[in-house]
Structures are given as structure tokens and as C-alpha cells.
Amino acid sequence: MPAPIKLLILGGTAEAMALARALAHDSRTTPLLSLAGRTKNPAAPPIPWRRGGFGGAEGLAAFLVEGGFDALIDATHPFAARISANAQAASTVAGIPLLALRRPPWKKTPGAHWISVPDIAAAAQALGITPRRVFLTIGRQDLVPFREAPWHHYLIRSVDPPDPAFLPPDCAVIAARGPFSRASECELLAAHKIDLLVTKNSGGVMREKLDAAHALGIPVVMVDRPAPSAAVATADGIAGVMAWLDRLHGAMRGV
Ligand code: NAP
Hints:
The protein is of the alpha/beta class. The chain folds into two domains: 5-103 and 227-252, 3-Layer(aba) Sandwich (Rossmann fold), CATH 3.40.50.720; 114-223, NAD(P)-binding Rossmann-like Domain (Rossmann fold, 3-Layer(aba) Sandwich), CATH 3.40.50. The chain has helices at residues 14-23, 56-66, 81-94, 120-126, 182-191, 208-215, 238-253, and strands at residues 5-10, 29-35, 49-51, 71-74, 98-101, 114-117, 133-137, 153-158, 171-175, 196-200, 220-223, 233-235. It has a six-stranded parallel sheet, with helices on both faces. Strands 6-11-10-7-8-9 form a six-stranded parallel sheet. Helix 2 crosses helix 3 and helix 5 packs across helix 6 (208-215). Residues 10-13, 34-36, 38, 53-56, 59-60, 76-77, 79-83, 86, 139, 200 line the site of NADP nicotinamide-adenine-dinucleotide phosphate.
């Protein structure tokens, strides 16, 4: 039997936690999950973990080499472009294989009203000059562009409360972690008289806010994902990661 694959998983997503659960009792790997440290009280992972940045691509490459890692999995959020670019560069320097785990993007339901925009700044511009009541579900790091459109009322939902310095003047804040039901999303949209939803195309199974907006005829400003690197092998779910690890394990055994 070859030694288990020493695996670094870059996380911060539900997919990374699902992968951690899938590998918790998998004798082929010794995994380490890495979190950026943004969330104040992250759920405890079922595998060894660490938190905090590595110091750019060079720092990550050094961490991989010094730690004797055999493989890297980038299971970060589709909008976390910097760490994904660092993962690609660092895996090349360290000479180890890299797999990206990316949940599929949301697809528009027929009849839904989506306005696609390339980034957050474009989302703020897309709100227009007529005052609206806007539900912002983009996390707490990307609020600043909406300060440029202070004539709208904003309902802001994020896991941890945002820094008050980032907030637009007319806003209400809800700190909450999903999952949310479609019924509760409908209630929230109605209670706050929301007439526009802004979200990143994070993708995945949790699309209740989109379904609620569709049901209530509320348009959605959808921020498209940054383009992923075509050079990185990608799996869209845990089964794909397991197949990749099977091949890697087979290659390490020389089969
Ligand atoms: P980012 O802009 O791509 O990364 C910024 C820096 O944070 C990286 O250069 C790295 O610092 C550090 N970092 C990011 N992910 C890390 C990880 N898993 N382990 C250790 N260090 C990490 O990322 P972001 O958009 O700020 O997101 C931060 C984290 O939150 C990510 O792990 C992501 O999965 C999660 N998240 C992001 C979003 C989103 O919308 N962006 C949504 C949900 C969850 P060094 O350069 O010092 O290594």
C-alpha cells in the first residue's frame, strides 16, 4: 500500500465542508482543510484544519513544498479569484496536481427576469436612478460600490455583520446563515417591500431566494462569475473529486 495522498483543500464553502466529510474516514488521503478566516465562528470541520492566508502564491507554494503535500484541491468560492489564481501558480511551482471543485452556476428559470452584469460595480450601476428597495445578498466584502447609489434603500444579508464603514446610508442589515426556505424568502421580500434582488452567481442547490423573487415577479441583478482558468482540471461535485483521487491514488501505486 502506498502512503496516503497528503492533500491540501482550500475551503470556505459548503462544497469544501462536504468534501471534508467525505474524506474524514477515507484511508487513501490525509487531508488538511484551509480556511481564510473571514467567518468569525466557522462550523468545526471533521478533518484537521488551519486558518489564515499563506502570503500570496509564493507563500502557498512554500507551504505545499515544506508540508510535503502530494495534491491540492481548490474548493474555494467561484468569486474568490485571487486564491484560485494563487492555487494555480503554487501548484505549478510545487509540481503537484491541482483540481478545482466548482459548484455549477445557477441557470435562469424560463420567464425569470435576470439582468446579467460582469461585476459588482456594474450591479450598482444597473440599479438606475429611480429609488428602489434592493435586497443585497452579495456578502459583506463588496458593499462599497452601493454607497455610490445612496438614493436606494438596501436590505443587506450576510453571515457576519458588515463593517459599518462599508454600508450605504439607507439600509437595514440582517446577519443570517442559510439555508433559507422559499416560503421564508418570500416573506422577507414581501415584508421589506423589495423590488430588486442583487446576487452573485454563486450557484449550487440553494436557490430559494431566486425562486422567491421569480414567484413574486421581482427582477434579479445577477453578477456573473469571474472566468475560471481553462488550464485547471475541474470537478462539479464530490463524485468528480473522488474519481480524480482514485486516479491519483492508482498512479501513486503505479497502476
Ligand atoms: P480571495 O480574494 O480570492 O483571496 C484573498 C486572500 O485570502 C488570498 O490571497 C489568501 O491570502 C486568502 N485566502 C482566501 N481563501 C483562503 C483559504 N481557503 N485558505 C487560506 N487563505 C485564503 O478570496 P475572498 O473572496 O476574500 O474569499 C475569502 C474566503 O471566503 C475564500 O476561502 C472563499 O472560499 C470564501 N468565500 C468567498 C465568497 C466570495 O463571494 N468571494 C463567498 C463565500 C465564501 P494569501 O494571499 O495571504 O494566501
